[in-house]
Amino acid sequence: MNLSIYKNKKALYALTLATAIGSAVFLSGCSKEFLKPDPLSFYEPTTTFSTESGLQAALAMADRHIRTYWTSFENRNISVPIGTEYLFSELSVASKTDDAALFADIPTQLTPIGGPGYDAGNWTTYFWDQTYEGIKYANTIPSFINNVTGLDEATKNAYLGRAYFHRAFRYLSLVFQFGDVPLVTKILEVPKQNYRSTKREAILQMITKDMEFAVQWVPEQKDMIYKGMVNKGACRMLLIKCYLATGQFQKAKDQADILINQSGYELMKNTFGTFVNTYSPQTWQVTRNVIWDLHRPENKLIAANREVIMGMPNRGATAESMIEFLTLRIFGPSYTSGSDLKTPDGKQAVQNYARNNGSYRQNYDYIRAIGRGIATWRLTSFATNEMWNVNGQSDLGDLRHNSTVGNWGRMDSIKYNDPTSTWFGKNLLFRHPTTGALLCTDSLRVWFDWPHYKIYLQDVVAEANQGANQFNGATNGSNADWYLYRLAETYLLRAEAKYYLGDAGGAAADVNEVRKRAGCTQLYNTVTIGEIMDERARELYLEEWRHMELSRVSYCLALSGKPDEWGNTYDVNTYDKQEGTGAAGGSYWYQRVVRYGMYNKGEIAVRPRTINYRMAKHNLYWPIPNSAITANNKGQLAQNFGYDGYNANTPKWDTWEEAVADEAKVQ
Description:
The chain is mainly alpha-helical. It is built from 26 helices and ten strands.
């Protein structure tokens, strides 16, 4: 099956101009300069979107845009948006310790005016800006589709359904990242600066209705030419999340039943596709296994992969076809840091030798085998250790946490590789074996284990250069195909629905299906919501938006009245309106962040500095950017609780119908 997305560049560039028309001018803080036509184009949107090819170009842009939440359009080699989603969770913290603006003291640093920049770990405003960009692309279809003649009902509704998916995907994210937000459903001909926020519940009701329509009309993947386009399975997956978020738990379960049992998908339980070993198997040998194969980008979108529901193609040598995804650099430990990790005899512990260096040794070629990490983010101890304990013991069979087969990376599996050191060829040590002195002076950035099977992407640019001493991940020309949805998550969503419905045993059975595929020996008889979320963390690292999903589950848990793993229950009216950094109270998200994560534990001393990771209850929602509030100067947007500008009396739309009706009232 063709893996391409549409490549009509002229139409795509035209689309970028067309969709800039006023629909959400205020949302990025733009002035009326934003409306001026491109002097290089005589393009008119009503002309381009009068043909089916124009609709295809619009959806192609939306399909391509969705992967930017992982990689960004910025092509940054230090930081990517998805890392911020993990920073606001129990699984990760910002760890670029040489950055004075390190995004660590969240209650102090996260403000409506922005806070630290991307490289410090903060992409919150990017999520706001780019999510409304994606909504703009999606709104192009319903705004212009009636200009296209000759479409039969099924074709027209399939286009609308795919557009609704893109809009719903982004609004589901917005309401659990930012809370009550402006609802924009059309492309306007003039700028609108008098929006008001729409309540989260109303937006959820609208996107649920839209996804019911999409599931009815969007084709199955087997009936589509391209992969990377929205298909019926993806629509059903999003509908499940919408049903959960609106408290319709039985409907969520029913949709998951269809996706699991009747849609042609299945968990991959055996090795398949192409076996892609590391560039240096003499250094880091992978024993072929299903988890490794499942996460090779070369296998993610092939026909033999029956688990993928929707993937995001990201390969090739041009900006249109690929955005670099330097996972090894950004998420791997900074183990080659010369000043922070030493041999017991005082030399740099691991050198990043190029192949043409005289000190290079093939069996100690860690740069090509595991990459040269800088640890913009690091995993917490919970994510690397405690989370993997099930029924009171570490599950040694779990392939996702298995260093023996090469899937999981452990610092003490790396060996000193400087031939001049008396410790050459011996395993790394954290402390001197006789004096007990620290050999690692920055334990945050340098010393942590990692899921190698997830972040290993081959760097074809570096591999082609014998003098390369930095292997960073998927550079231009590499393959960085990624999952948006796969069936393993469907099982875990169904487990969640069953838990809310009071069927903890049935929920355990679904969690166990995912665990058995991973080779686990420890299975559940019953589960809490915490054990379901633990399994999501084990299975979906760097796939799910971790903060957003924890925020969604916090709301669902409050709707259901069910307890969390500590016996806490939550009031849907108050769980997100609490302040402070105390241990008690807040949302389920907050409880996981402070109980399992690295926040609010006190100061940590590392070589460059002392760091105090802090998170407050109100940081469940990110602040509405001040640029959006001030640009909407003829109306009033609601700021979130706990941030400067919050006013409980700011008017909001109670229903999505009111918000849509108001869109026509420009001034």
